[in-house]
Amino acid sequence: MTTEQTTAPINAWHVAQHQFDLAAEMLNLDPGLRRVLREPRRELTVHFPVKMDDGSVQVFTGYRVQHNLGRGPAKGGIRYHQDVTIDEVKALAMWMTWKCAVVAIPYGGGKGGVIVDPKKLSKKELEGLSRRFFTEIEVLVGPERDIPAPDVNTTPQIMAWFMDTYSMHVGHTVPGVVTGKPISLGGSEGRNEATARGCVYTIVEAAAHLGMDLNTATVAVQGFGNAGNIAATLMVEQGSKVVAVSDSQGGIRNVAGLDIARVLQWKAEHGTVKGFPGAEDITNAEVLETECDILIPAALENQITARNAGSIKARIVAEAANGPTTPEADEILFERGVFLIPDILCNAGGVTVSYFEWVQDLNRDHWTETEVNAKLKTIMVKAFHEVLAQAQQQGVNMRTGAYLNAVQRVADATALRGLYP
């Protein structure tokens, strides 16, 4: 979902490179190493046919990008969206490299996407598209090479089709080739809630750092998909009051607080949160500017820009989405004293539990949800305080602190491995 754009669309890849350049400059990285890390290792574009229910054949375009493999196999989701571009996928792959490094899990960054509106496909067409796309990118993927996962508009069912397709080709079941699978096929307990849970763990730490009482805090959530609605539910469990939420159709607000369980029920019945009884309908842009203590952007990239950053009223911005804030907006928020928890830290809970799922699959093991959540909390809290310490030490914002930690770790691994041949 996007807010009304009056200017030219922002290129996510340019944003990602700019964020990297800032960190590389501060770290005084070797120019050769900087050139290596500034570009993706591999970009694959595929055009593949799918037979539709009416008998016609449509050709779809998809991408798989591997940014850096210095610290381990590529890891990152596959999204199905009509606006997917190669530049967006490159940016997301680079962000995955830093995200894995921030929380110190042994992966490099990858990302994939197909240009399609999956809401317009039947289940049979969706399965045909998923299996054919995975067959096309199979030259790159594998449990020790590149492990995809769900992202925007992709589900555990789609991961099951991916896993089955790969397994059929190699002749035996390989659960570790994708994560985010149904639990019965080697998925992990707690994976569905992991992104939101990790986000809330960092909010709890940020609130403690700022002396904010979550029992009296108000929350606005832009994006009421998996991450957004679970984050809203978990914030209510923390004692906070959710006053505004939105989805791709628009948003709702009630300053007295929304009953999130009822909003979820309403969305399931009506396909949108709009029109929820007892709340006023507002735009996605208005959700971002709502009077609240904590703002959780959980939609798409480039939502908080130089145009609206001055109107953000929250004290904490917790990026459950990837790339929701532009570099210009970062500076404005930092100057205004807004505490931003950057995406590569805030939403790293998803990839962390994906890592747990992969470890369980490789070992043919299964952990309880309590074990998963305890391990996740340990990793998220440690990463938060490492980033906070770096940001305070350098006198920079949390995003730059996270980048300094992440880029240094990836640069060290890349330099130690050297150039082949």
Question: What does it look like?
Answer:
- It is a single chain.
- By secondary structure, the chain is of the alpha/beta class.
- It has two domains: 40-185, Leucine Dehydrogenase, chain A, domain 1 (Rossmann fold), CATH 3.40.50.10860; 194-346, NAD(P)-binding Rossmann-like Domain (Rossmann fold, 3-Layer(aba) Sandwich), CATH 3.40.50.720.
- It has 14 helices and twelve strands.
- It has helices spanning 12-27, 31-38, 86-102, 123-137, 156-170, 194-210, 226-237, 260-270, 284-288, 327-335, 343-346, 349-362, 369-394, 398-417; strands at 42-51, 57-68, 74-81, 108-115, 146-150, 218-222, 241-247, 250-253, 280-282, 294-297, 316-318, 339-341.
- Strand 11, helix 10 (327-335) and strand 12 (339-341) form a beta-alpha-beta unit.
- The longest helix is centred in the last third of the chain and has 26 residues, at 369-394.
- The model is unreliable at 1-6 (pLDDT under 50).
Give me the CATH fold name of the largest domain: Rossmann fold
* Radius of gyration (Å): 21 Å
For the record, give the distance between the C-alpha atoms at the N and C termini, rounded to a whole number. Answer: 45 Å
Using the coordinates above, name the CATH class of the largest domain. Answer: Alpha Beta
The helix-strand sequence is HHEEEHEHEHHEHEEHEHEEHEHHHH
CATH architecture of the largest domain: 3-Layer(aba) Sandwich
- Biggest beta sheet summary: 7 strands, mixed
